[in-house]
Amino acid sequence: MTAGTPHSPVVLVLSGSNRTGSFNTMLASMMVDGLIARDVDARLVPLGHLDLALFDADVNEADGPPPAAHRLQADIAAADGLVIVSPEYNGAMTPLLKNTVDWVSRVDMATFFLKKVALAAATPGRRGGANVLDLTARWLPYIGADVFPETFGLPSIRHVMVDGELTDGHDERLSGFLDRLAPWFRAVSSDG
Ligand SMILES: Cc1cc2nc3c(=O)[nH]c(=O)nc-3n(C[C@H](O)[C@H](O)[C@H](O)COP(=O)(O)O)c2cc1C
Hints:
six-stranded parallel β-sheet; 8 strands
């Protein structure tokens, strides 16, 4: 445990971008800080830092999932919840996010079953990743996840993120989102 009380929920904040200087990784990092401030034991996991090649069913059949998939699966299994902060690529999730979930599912296909997951996206456009947020919210229940009903889309990211801070009222929006999200994770951890 890295922060909070022994009863703090443990939450992994996954960034689905592997781009240097990623806005989504910056947003993920802000979410970690905001959740820690709300007594959630949050930790950033940049998926691009994991050593996961493109999923290959033959490799999986011959050797099983790679060590990085086993490590992430164990971390997810031990966590009370996840926040996935990921860009929109052609209206969908990034190959990095999908690939990671596919590998983890081969370690244990029940990994995401009943896992509490919240979704966020940052995009340069005006829709704040509405399409990928909607798509991901419909996809994750297929593998059993319990998706937080509210998503956080951050539009016009090149203009509203200035020197690592959110402007134009989006800092207040993020704060309100985290105020609603933290108790949802806390309810899970006290259930368990
Ligand atoms: C292959 C590709 C497809 C993209 N498709 C979309 C899209 O459908 N909608 C959108 O808002 N932005 C799209 N973008 C722009 C990304 O939102 C933008 O590059 C963003 O900065 C990526 O997030 P990051 O900074 O966290 O890496 C696309 C970018 C790439 C590389």
